[in-house]
Amino acid sequence: MSSYSISELFDRYPELKVSEVSILNAFHLLRDAFVNDGSVFVCGNGGSAADAEHMVGELMKGFLIPRNVSSDIKLNLTEQYGEEGGILADNLQDGLRAISLNGHPSLATAYGNDVNFEMIFAQQLYVLGRVGDVLVGFSTSGNSTNVLNTFKIAKGLGIKTIAMTGGDGGASSSIVDCCIKVPEKETYKIQELHLPVYHALCAMLEEEFYGG
After folding, report:
1. Distance CA 51, CA 53 (A)
2. Which CATH number fits the domain 6-60+95-210, given the four candidates 3.40.50.10490, 2.160.10.10, 3.90.226.10, 3.40.640.10?
3. Distance, first Cα to last Cα, the chain
4. 195: Cβ–Cβ under 8 A, 6 or more apart, which residues?
5. pTM (predicted TM-score)
6. Tens of pLDDT along 23-48?
7. Among candidates 155, 161, 196, 142, which has minimal Cα distance to 41?
8. Shortest CA distance to 123 belongs to which of 133, 145, 108?
9. Which one of 21, 24, 29, 41 is most buried, by most CB atoms within 10 A?
10. Sign of the CA dihedral 116, 119, 124, 127?
11. What's the rounded Cα separation, in Å, for the pair 141 and 138?
12. How many CB atoms within 10 Å of residue 184?
C-alpha cells in the first residue's frame, strides 16, 4: 500500500510551494464534497480538456492504493450470480464520483451549434450539479469564457469552485472559492505544473478515503 503527503509534491516541484495554501484549500473543498456524497465536475479546453479527463480518471479508480469493493457488494453479487458474481466484484474498484464535462461531445457540439458554445459546460453543470458539489475548471489564462460562465452558474447553484490557472489567475481568481495559480506564464509550462498539482490532490484524496 502506498501513501502520499503534500510534502512529496514540494520535494519534487519546489516552485509549487508558493501555491501550498490554495492547494490545501482545494483539497478541503474536494474532500468535503466526497464526505457529503457529492460529485466533482471538471472542465477545460484543449490541453486543459485532457487534464480534466486525466484528473477524473485518477479519481474514479485506484491510483496509488487498491480500492476493493465492499464485502456487502461482493456478497450481493455472489448471491445473485454465484461464482461469476465474485469475479465481477473482484474486477470492480471503488471510486470517488467525478464527471468530466468534456466527456459528452454530441451534447456539447449540439449545444454549441444550436445555442452558444460559450455555455457548453455551464449547461451540463446546470442539469447535473447539486448543492455541495465542486467544480474544477482548468484555464491556463484564467479567462476562458466557457469556463468562466460555468463558474458563474456554479455560484448560482451553490456549488463550490476551484480554478486551475497560471500567472495572476485572470478573471477566474475573483469569482472562484479557490484559485490555484501555478508560477508560470506560458501555456505549456502552466500545463506542465498543473499535472503534478492534480496528481497530488488525487493522491491526497485517495489517502483520505482509502489509506486506512
Report:
1. 5
2. 3.40.50.10490
3. 10
4. 51, 54
5. 0.95
6. 999 999 999 999 999 999 999 999 99
7. 161
8. 108
9. 41
10. negative
11. 9
12. 17
